[in-house]
Structure prediction request, 84 residues.
Amino acid sequence: MAHHASAKKRIRQNEAIRLRNRYYAVTMRNAVRKLRSCENKEEAVKALPVVSKMIDKLAKRNVIHKNKAANLKSKLALHINKLA
Prediction:
């Protein structure tokens, strides 16, 4: 275990950051699931910018990889375009 005060502080910080990142990642995943389950095209079109913004923010802050963000956004756009 850590012996230096700075190492103990770093452990505390890492845990706080990890929990914060997990919270935002789970929130984003739930928003994506909700958007994918949406049957109404108008609602889905309204929700897409909000979800895209979430995904972009997480990619910018390195919570998710930028390529994963691009893939998610692309798949969501395809899904919305297929809705009748």
